[in-house]
Specification:
CATH topology of the domain at 2-103: PH-domain like
Number of strands: 22
CATH class of the domain at 2-103: Mainly Beta
Radius of gyration: 28 Å
Strand order of the largest sheet: 10-11-12-13-14-15-16-17-18-19-20-21-22
CATH architecture of the domain at 2-103: Roll
Shape: globular
Distance between the termini: 17 Å
Number of helices: 18
Length: 625
């Protein structure tokens, strides 16, 4: 697991600031899950490596987390101040440093957590002991378990409650409910993610077989197909590609791998993929269904294609953040590909606040007062074009079709994630199975004379997520025509039109053609007015997330955005959860804006920044906030 908080960070040691690393590509705070042990918090953007874990912080200043600010004081006196962050991400950082992160590391096994339910212990000695009672410590643990499972061991829960002379251990049960049980934790009691850590180096087959004989739960786990994942701890540490390939081959001998995740492995060269392709095709018997190469920047078209030819059953492919790739990289049979992520995300679209560089500047009052013009996203260096997407929209090749050219045939794509691909100038024929389409910062264009007949999404009856952010060459009429071209069965759930020419007319038309929207981003759309936003809140009854950051035409007060009440209908946006207002007049008077928001949207939180709907695609398929 890895979560990156994009924010401004200042670090001081003994009153002296630590200078940032100008060559650093990332700035902020990163929560990383090590191969063993608890997760850690890493501060990015400095020449000095700064890692914090549970117990390293002696003071938290978290009274302004809701405003995107957090301060920490470590035990050695270091001060870390984070600002301009998303509050929800800062809560994750706090939970990790306080040891309260659910499901991370081994912290969930601490006995003092009252809500942790204990499980019966599976032990191979049960079969040999027959009907004799278990050792006292394990018997007490079995008695106290409220959800004893009969699948573990050869004795059911009722039998464990009987002592050797056939009488129920009522005294034992009463004693366990009044004091904390001191019992050893069995492998069967560990959650699956902890078992995965314990078996990270894959024990011998004989050891796995003995483990499987213990109980049915561990038998299922030992037969489960587990992924091969380097993890963030292996990124940028100088690993030899030959060592990783050898580890993958050894891993494949003990598990039928279907997931190979080499994300962030910058040391993987094009020449090293020759050995890697042999492992994927031979040791893994071409059974890999999920291949992730995000951030492997040294790969080329030939290297990626070489790997794809050895993975004919591939369903998920992640080649984000690999420069210089083109359509040739995907010239391989991809008859089962469902999720494709290619291109570059760049920096997430979070709002940045510009404050005058004066010694007497008051940061608390200056936030949001000076509006920075929206940054133009840098054009991507990848060369993927519309021809690649058009080829994947063809009918997938079937075995009965006979030998065909390797580049022929399409794929049943459900997710096409192609951000910052400037060679996309037209929307080709799209796969009819598509559910998620992200073409942010492309070069899509359509002459006004042809807008009336433009129907690019007519073959997408299942599409529910559409991202056209940063397509500045499309007029408002073209955007309306694009959304209107969806079939009547398509119901958009999330729509991102940030930094486009969307304006008042689009805001008035959108609820009529897609009234089921729950997530809408219009950040950086300078043609929107207060009345237009109020109309969206009034008409989109299912709306949960709205981002209007950097909309320079919006004016204080925020109360003018309140949806107008209708006959027999309350004028409140009760479903609204998040409202992004960074770099607007509303952020200048943040407290009053939040009070005004609570009046008509009691469940909503005003975020002094912009919102990332897809979390940087850290998960595939992506989860929407």
């Amino acid at each position: 697991m890895m979560t990156t908080v994009r924010c401004s960070v200042a670090v001081e040691v003994k009153g002296r600031p630590i200078h940032g690393d100008k060559s650093a590509k990332e700035h902020g705070i990163q929560v990383t899950q090590a191969a063993f042990g608890l997760p850690q918090v890493r501060v990015l953007g400095f020449k000095r490596e700064i890692r914090l874990g549970l117990g390293d912080v002696r003071q938290f200043v978290d009274n302004r987390v809701s405003e995107g600010r957090l301060a920490l004081v470590t035990k050695d006196g270091m001060q870390v101040v984070a600002s301009k962050a998303q509050p929800a991400q800062l809560e994750i950082v706090l939970s990790v440093l306080r040891g309260k992160a659910p499901g991370l590391g081994l912290g969930c096994l601490q006995p003092q957590q009252k809500e942790q339910q204990l499980r019966p212990v599976a032990t191979p000695m049960v079969a040999s002991l027959g009907e004799s009672k278990l050792p006292p410590r394990k018997l007490r643990r079995a008695v106290c378990s409220s959800g004893a499972s009969s699948s573990c061991g050869s004795v059911n829960a009722g039998a464990l409650l009987l002592s050797g002379d056939g009488h129920r251990c009522d005294a034992e049960v009463d004693g366990c409910s009044n004091h904390q049980v001191d019992a050893a934790i069995s492998l069967c009691s560990l959650p699956q993610h902890v078992l995965s850590l314990l078996l990270e180096f894959q024990p011998a087959t004989s050891a796995l077989l003995r483990l499987a004989e213990t109980c049915s739960q561990l038998d299922t786990f030992s037969k489960e197909r587990r992924p091969f994942r380097l993890g963030p701890a292996a990124s940028g540490v100088g690993l030899d590609p030959k060592t990783v390939v050898h580890a993958l081959a050894r891993h494949a001998k003990h598990a039928a791998l279907t997931v190979v995740d080499l994300s962030g492995f910058t040391e993987l060269t094009a020449s090293a993929t020759v050995q890697l392709a042999e492992v994927l095709g031979c040791e893994l018997q071409a059974g890999v269904r999920d291949l992730r190469l995000r951030g492997c920047k040294a790969l080329s078209d030939v290297a990626v294609r070489r790997l794809l030819l050895r993975c004919p059953s591939l369903e998920v492919l992640d080649v984000l953040e690999i420069p210089r790739l083109s359509n040739r990289a995907l010239d391989a049979p991809l008859a089962q590909l469902r999720i494709l992520a290619a291109g570059t995300l760049g920096r997430p679209p979070t709002a940045e606040l510009r404050v005058p560089a004066r010694a007497d500047t008051n940061l608390s009052t200056g936030l949001g007062t000076v509006l920075a013009s929206p940054k133009q996203r840098a054009q991507g260096s990848t060369q993927f074009s519309s021809a690649m997407l058009a080829r994947l929209a063809q009918r997938p090749c079937l075995p009965e079709d006979g030998p065909l050219d390797q580049s022929s045939g399409g794929a049943p794509l459900t997710h096409a994630i192609l951000p910052c691909c400037p060679e996309f100038q037209v929307l080709p024929q799209l796969p009819p199975t598509l559910r998620h389409l992200d073409l942010r910062s492309a070069s899509l264009q359509m002459p006004e004379a042809a807008v009336a007949k433009w129907r690019p999404l007519a073959r997408c009856p299942h599409l529910n997520v559409l991202c056209l952010a940063g397509n500045t060459l499309l007029s408002s009429s073209a955007l309306i025509a694009c959304i209107r071209s969806l079939p009547g069965t398509a119901r958009l759930r999330a729509l991102d039109l940030s930094n486009t020419q969307a304006e008042i007319r689009l805001a008035a038309t959108l609820p009529q053609i897609q009234p089921w929207l729950t997530h809408l981003r219009l950040a950086g759309c300078t043609g929107l007015s207060n009345a237009a936003v109020a109309g969206l809140l009034s008409s989109l009854q299912q709306l949960e997330v709205l981002d209007i950051a950097c909309c320079a035409a919006l004016e204080q007060p925020l109360a003018t955005l309140a949806p107008a009440s209708r006959a027999g209908q309350a004028g409140a946006a009760v479903r609204l959860r998040l409202l992004g207002i960074g770099q607007t007049d509303f952020a200048t008077y943040l407290d009053s804006s939040r009070r005004a928001l609570a009046a008509f949207a009691p469940n909503a939180v005003a975020v002094n920044g912009s919102l990332d709907l897809f979390g940087g695609y850290g998960l595939l398929p992506p989860e929407i906030i």
